[in-house]
């Protein structure tokens, strides 16, 4: 019900948009404040990396729809852990963390991995210790809400869950947050942040922190980011744009490729190229026929809600 209210409110922000304007911020789901934080970073002279980091960090702090940041999606042990990734489209450098504990600013830690190490990803307790050594504050990621989710799950005999040949298959979905930012000169960055699937098996790493699965950025072509059932989410959207496809077609082609093998998967993709064109596509399944995403560019000068019909 709360999500419905938010969507109705955002619908009043819909604007007729052109499809070739820079700079550009585009992100999954109707998270207006996160889009605004990224757009504000670009407008104040920040880099595309700054924009992506600030946008994702705002979503982490706001606990966007409960699927990003602390206090949501507890695992089988009742613990909230975080995954995040950031990618520099100029240098192709990537920083990522997975199964991160105690640290709320996952996207910030991911950027520290990229800029302060020669590695791409750190995971689990070692990622948390690295973050603390880098000066990030250790805090409890549990809230009354996440405790209640876990308690109700236990009362329901631990259903649904993500075990195979032990319990029935799960039916829950997640909504990880993805962002792409392009500045006036065409420099591009992409980032992701999520607390993963509710009731996931501890230690599970989804697509979010994986470059080329959760998001990808190449300043010579464009960027793409996916949301939904991460364990089956792969795409070739950026390579489609490299071959000349427009972003909408590239997104649809990527979704079509997945549908051949996973007809009922839950997911969507956003794409943008370095000229400022953008698009999105999603798979139509029960309860998911329209995908909402946010855009900011010079034509809107503020976050604007867009949607695409799933196919």
From TrEMBL:
Cleaved signal peptide residues: 1-20
What is the top EC class of this enzyme, as a single word? hydrolase
Cellular component annotations (GO), alphabetically ordered? lysosome
Family statement drawn from the similarity comment of this UniProt entry: Belongs to the Ntn-hydrolase family.
Q: Which source organism?
A: Neogobius melanostomus
Single GO molecular-function term?
A: N4-(beta-N-acetylglucosaminyl)-L-asparaginase activity
What's its job? Cleaves the GlcNAc-Asn bond which joins oligosaccharides to the peptide of asparagine-linked glycoproteins.
Kindly give the PANTHER family that the UniProt entry links to this protein.
Answer: L-ASPARAGINASE (PTHR10188), N(4)-(BETA-N-ACETYLGLUCOSAMINYL)-L-ASPARAGINASE (PTHR10188:SF6)
Q: What is the protein name given in its UniProt record?
A: N(4)-(Beta-N-acetylglucosaminyl)-L-asparaginase
* Enzyme Commission no: 3.5.1.26
User: Which keywords describe this protein according to UniProt?
Assistant: Autocatalytic cleavage, Hydrolase, Protease, Signal
